[in-house]
Specification:
Elements lengths: L9 H5 L7 E5 L2 E5 L38 E6 L2 E6 L4 E3 L6 E3 L4 E3 L8 E3 L3 H12 L11 E4 L2 H12 L5 E6 L4 H8 L4 E6 L16 H13 L4 E7 L11 H13 L3 E5 L28 E6 H4 L8 E5 L2 H8 L2 H4 L3 H12 L1 H29 L4 E2 L6 E5 L9 H13 L5 E2 L10 E5 L4 H23 L15
Parallel strand pairs: 10-11, 10-12, 12-13, 13-14
Antiparallel strand pairs: 1-2, 3-4, 5-6, 7-8, 9-15, 14-15, 16-17, 17-19, 18-19
Length: about 475
Amino acid sequence: MPPALQGCSPFLRRNPGSLPPVRVQSPHGACTVSMGMVWKEKPPENQTRSCSMAWVIPPPCSPPTVPTCPLEEASLNGSGIQLRRATGPTTWMSMMRIRTLAASLTWAPVRTNSALTCCPGGLREEVASFLSFYCKSPAPLKPENVVVLNGCASLFSALATVLCEVGEAFLIPAPYYGAITQHVYLYGNVRLVCVYLDSEVTGLETHPFQLTVDKLEMALQGAISEGVKVKGLILINPQNPLGDIYSPGELREYLEFAKRHALHVMVDEVYMLSVFEESVGYRSVLSLEGLPDPQKTHVMWATSKDFGMSGLRFGTLYTENQDVATAVASLCRYHGLSGFVQYQMAQLLRDRDWINQVYLPENHARLKAAHTYVSEELRALGVPFLSHGAGFFIWVDLRKFLPEATFEEERLLWRRFLENKVLLSFGKAFECKEPGWFRLVFSDKAHRLRLGMQRIRQVLEGKSQVAEDPPSCQTQEPRGPHR
């Protein structure tokens, strides 16, 4: 057996030339790339480095290698394979010739129970530095307290599994982002106990759907009376779907409540950089001086919303509890990031000048313009709504367009929107206890917003007439697009 094939898969050892070669074209001429070849260890010094040399695949499970050739990189696009001039040392990231800079990837131990994970040097340092700056923490955050998984969904699942036994529960203010129900139930069979909020305003110092410590206490005692053991509290700040932003004083009150009852607090700050109204004054929980119980306060953030990168799946947890960090990180076996994504994230997070001077100002300006347009259209329609200058959505009150105040009528109105090719999310999906509230996402281009608002106007004008003269059979499933 050729020495270069030792350590390769049995398939490649038996059939080194069995995979079909790929013909590629470069400025230096055509060449053939065989998927079954391996790196030539050292080309002759007088041999020109060009794409006429063999392209190769490193043995499985081998550490990153800095090859000596070729000077070209292959990349796949919609029209086939093309070549471009390489910018530095490269290493194969997959059989499809996806590459990244080998010099930027290092092998380093990550918190796992049984293995080492390929992790770019400095990724956790970049995350800690990034969060220290944008969360305005009073002291620099520590890289060893950072855990990275593939998204906040994975973090919710991991935390539920780590913190709870089967059948235990978390408190969560409702309405809330409904997918969290699945996240915490998936592995650990953990349930959510809703802290129900309502739209009633009881005084000058109150606002609709306001979370208070009294409501938290009531929900906790109700769960205890039913024999449910509550292990933690989930807070979303800025809140989804309400768009609420908790003040530092409110955050401290909620954290003190949790400390009194020995509860963990999971704070989801995934919309942290999507606060587009400067007057709002958003504060991260990590900006507070002296957390009431740092060992039970766990903060999550991801790039999915603030950077519009849901598909890349990058989420990070910051916790000072080393036992929790180690346990959550042990699940990276199932929720880890590829080296390619880790490298991209490290590059993004360290590019502070571009984020501050280009991306965030433009993103906030576009969000504000879209929000202003939709708000004006809703006012013209006489539709009440709640919005606090953060996130991608407006919490819209369509109760007056329901013939009856029931969730069945809410669903029928949602269906009517859907048949008119506009998608809103109804309140029941967020465990809102009052039928008739909808979440309207406004983070889109102007021409789509205009079309969407036209369709909403058509539906509501039609539904207003229905409300005045309801049909004899209101609960039937709509059958036609104009019904």
